[in-house]
């Protein structure tokens, strides 16, 4: 029997593949090749990823969602579904995470993501409602716009003194301050009309002022020295052309797109 995952020829009617351990639930006639097909979501994810450049990131979040769906389907298919042909067996997702050289990478990543380094880097064991990615941070300069003034923002929650107009000032510039596409730790995506949409109403674009909980307002950020205040503090940033809150020095010459 041929393993549908690695292609190893096994003895007649085995329970698992002797090479890779794949559970063999349906017997295949000896010598009969397994038909492998390309994943539709993977192809769509690739196409949307390319389109995110000319559309200034509008298709980036759907591309991520479809990519995750494709990865799950490929993993469960036992080798019957693939994302692309000619991929080495030891290929990992990080091998495809390349936005170009350091001088250009900030232009090609059209979304923000939770700071992946340090004590509070995201973990799969975290709370499902924790925000991990979204449209670009409005407080950081991007190829599409200057950073907004943090002084204009105030949440419209009870006791915080803000209005609908001041609350909108904290939303993504990509969607004309109407809101932002946000992906959470459980991989679901919603279009959120307020930036304080992570756990405990934490603001996804600012650093919490508290060491043990979320914060709808938060404080301004200044990459690359910004760090989350706690495990409950979602801080989504993108790679600016220059470092600083709205302006700053030149990009470090030693930085690479994989740092």
Strand order of the largest sheet: 6-5-4-3-7
> Main sheet, how many strands, which sense, barrel?
5 strands, antiparallel
Query: What's the number of helices?
Result: 4
Overall outline: elongated
> Structural class from helices and strands?
little secondary structure
Overview of the molecule:
The protein is largely without helices or strands. It has a domain at 99-259. Helix content is 15%, strand content 9%. It is built from 4 helices and 7 strands, in the order βααβαββαβββ. The protein has helices at 40-51, 60-76, 105-108, 164-168, and strands spanning 37-38, 81-82, 111-114, 131-135, 180-184, 189-192, 236-237. Strands 6-5-4-3-7 form a 5-stranded antiparallel beta sheet, covered by helices on one side. A two-stranded parallel ribbon has the order 1-2. A hairpin with a 4-residue loop joins strand 5 and strand 6 (189-192). Helix 1 (40-51) packs antiparallel against helix 2 (60-76). The longest helix is centred in the first third of the chain and has 17 residues, at 60-76. Residues 243-259 have low confidence and may be disordered.
What's a quick, concise take on this entry?
With 259 residues, the chain is largely without helices or strands.
Question: What distinguishing features does this structure have?
Answer:
two-stranded parallel sheet, 259 residues, elongated, 4 helices, little secondary structure
């Amino acid at each position: 029997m041929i393993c549908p995952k690695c292609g190893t020829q096994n003895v007649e009617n085995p329970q698992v593949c002797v090479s890779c351990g794949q559970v063999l639930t349906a017997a295949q006639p000896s010598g009969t090749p397994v038909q492998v097909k390309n994943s539709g979501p993977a192809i769509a994810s690739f196409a949307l990823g390319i389109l995110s450049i000319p559309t200034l990131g509008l298709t980036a979040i759907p591309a991520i969602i479809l990519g995750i769906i494709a990865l799950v389907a490929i993993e469960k298919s036992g080798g019957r579904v693939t994302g692309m042909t000619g991929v080495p067996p030891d290929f990992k997702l990080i091998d495809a995470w390349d936005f170009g050289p350091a001088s250009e990478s900030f232009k090609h990543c059209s979304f923000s993501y939770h700071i992946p380094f340090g004590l509070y880097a995201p973990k799969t064991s975290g709370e499902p409602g924790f925000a991990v990615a979204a449209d670009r941070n409005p407080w950081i300069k991007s190829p599409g716009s200057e950073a907004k003034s943090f002084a204009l923002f105030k949440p419209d929650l009870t006791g915080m003194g803000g209005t609908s107009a001041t609350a909108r000032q904290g939303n993504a510039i990509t969607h004309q301050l109407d809101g932002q596409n946000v992906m959470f730790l459980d991989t679901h995506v919603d279009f959120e009309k307020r930036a304080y949409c992570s756990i405990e109403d934490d603001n996804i674009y600012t650093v919490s002022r508290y060491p043990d909980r979320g914060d709808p307002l938060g404080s301004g950020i200044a990459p690359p020295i910004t760090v989350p205040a706690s495990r409950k503090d979602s801080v989504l940033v993108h790679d600016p052309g220059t470092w600083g809150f709205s302006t700053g020095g030149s990009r470090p010459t030693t930085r690479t797109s994989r740092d």
